[in-house]
Model the fold of this input.
Amino acid sequence: MRRANLVVGGVLIAVIVSMAAVGLFWTPFSPTAISGPRLAPPGWPHVLGTDGQGSDTASRIISGAKLALLVGVMSVSAAALIGVPVGIIAGMSHRWVAAILSRGADILYGFPALLLAILFAAAVGGSTWTAVAAIGIATIPVFVRIARAATMQVMSQTFVEAARLSATPPLQVAWRHVLPNIAPVLGVQVSVSFGLAILAEAGLSYLGLGSGSDVPTWGRMLREAQNELFNAPLVALWPGLAIAMATMGFNLLGDGLRDLLDPKLREIA
Amino acid sequence: MLSTMGEFRPMEARRPRRLVAAWLCLMAAGAVALTACTRPEAPSQGEPVILNIGATGEPVGLDPSTVNGAGTPFVLLYNVYETLVRIDGEGAIRPLLARDYSVSDDNKVYTFNLDGLAKFASNTPVDAEAVVTSFDRILKGDGITDQVTSKMAPVDSVKALDSDTVEVTLKQPSNQWLFDMAGPAGIIYDPAGLDTLDTKPAGSGPFAFAEWETGQFVKLVRNDHYWGTGTRVDEVFFRYYADPNAMNTAMLSGQLDIISNLTVPQALDQFGDPDKYTVIEGTTDGEVVLGFNHDNPQLADLKVRQAINYGIDRQALVDSVWGGKGMLIGSMVAPTDPWFEDLSKTYTFDQEKARALLKEAGFESGLTLRLRVPTLPYAPPAARFIAAQLKEIGVTVQVEELEFARWLSEVYTAGDYDMTIVAHVEPRDIGNFANPDYYWHYDNPAFADLIKKADEGSAQEQVTLMKEAAKMLADDAAADWLFLLPNLVITTKEVSGLEQNATSLSFDLTSVATNR
Done:
């Protein structure tokens, strides 16, 4: 029963990932072409109907999965690659270095992804890459905090103290002892951040700060559906569902992983 | 307006700054949170008559001569400020403050006779001195926008012949000048209020300015000193919404009496109940132009431009993008202009012909063009539609969306684009095509010559020559005129007296009434 989160999350993500994989090679119709009448209801051949321009909704959802995952992978891995080392350094350093790094992360934390995306869009124009950058940068502080807190816990343990007393270089301590021990915590955070990144990407696309209008993304589909809400409310349902599924999937997976990795909970069971 | 980009009365422009600010005003409105406005209870006897008007383009300032942006004249022109002549609902020039006017035989000297009755809201008379002071201020140009000074450029001198007669001498004849005097450039200001125009508009209209709560509303009150037939409305609130859908909701829930321009035409059916709402559908001066950069050698080729014109089904585009509202025009002329001709059939949708033309032009294997559009309500969806259609004739369109300020600097000012989409909403703006330095870089001396002759010719010559010019543009596929923005105004059943067509930059409330 405790594994329910993990299973449901895993299944949802499997659906999204396979959609994205299929979308790389095949969609029922071209996701950008005008392939049917406008606002056709779900049926055949348009399984989920068509949108306000007559494009096939199912094809656009499938095609959008690809971009959602791409943005998630890019932004979260970038954030982790920067945030985790900084967090570990902060956790292993003397008080003032740690303070500078943590406060730096706190300052960054004050900039929401949306604000960064608007800044980027104003400076270099909105695109998939500015969305990745904005979400990535906004996600860094979370990783810094988590990595630092976890590192400090590990650092107080006897085996690390032993390593340090035997004059093991700090880099080696970080690599050999700290990173493997904080990896589970980070894994949980990656999963949760992934869900948030997909949600953020949808938000940015919705606001027109992400990919161009010829690229089908879930957020943009929602935005386009908004104007038709009165005439064809179903058009907004599908991208909304897709976003909800992806976000929920990654969150459940994160929760499930946490439960699985938490020794205290394991003992109770 | 970043998100749902309300908009909409972008004033398009001969000069960059003009347009910049027009849109900047829209963006400022976009940053604004939606305000909760509650409609006052139905007035019983003696209670003030109040009109709440929903709008999306907030003014950036209050002096139409020193701030750019369509939001300012939208509220103030004809309502608070008056001009010697005005544009009526059919697009014709009519006397306003001037009882009548005469033109010399060489079309260079205009003599305006004032009524002698007109008064500013401060109860001082609108006399010849006020006209001279107002015009001289524009001519001197201190702090005045390029947009306004450029319209006064043909003027050589302005003088008062007596207290009720003004004589304006032009350097060369210009039909456009008189037309422009019906707009923001021709406003007659109260000389006593010149120092405080940016905080307290001082005009002679049926309404007087009362208050501007930034981000929320502009309030006008009835001008009790009005010289003409006064309004029966006591107070008017222009309430600004960042999100047009929120404005629609406010209307549906009874917080508004009027939606000044529906920017989500797809939502029109929400107001379909004729027992509750009146829907006014008319035309505007806003041509939505798919502009070509003629500096691009591919687009300098007439065949490529024609192929693109043939390759886009404009009626289907309007259906998809603008709820099927909006007329097809085929050239840069609004239907309320006397020289309007339906040129929308110049290039009817024909993909075969388009492919053949591309082949003739040497692009049998296809070509790639960048379509860089501003993030305004109509542009990204239109871009998506165009990209899908042109792909079928072998043109790969790379769509790029630019936040408006960035669009202005890169596309409009620097000309870094192949194709772009923007609405040009200024009245009678076909002359932009006669300027090779304008962002389209369209250089056609024969066309420029026609425009110049039309401006200097008699009224009859003007109509003939302008028709010729519009046809020349259409035949030359100088751009692809996608559609004309519709004027979509929603009012409650009780409101009457609004014009059907938006022929000027004003949201004209001079004859509005409500029997609530």
Summary: The interface with chain B takes residues 32-34, 38, 52-55, 118, 121-122, 125-127, 206-209, 212-214, 223-224, 226-231 of chain A (CB under 8 Å).
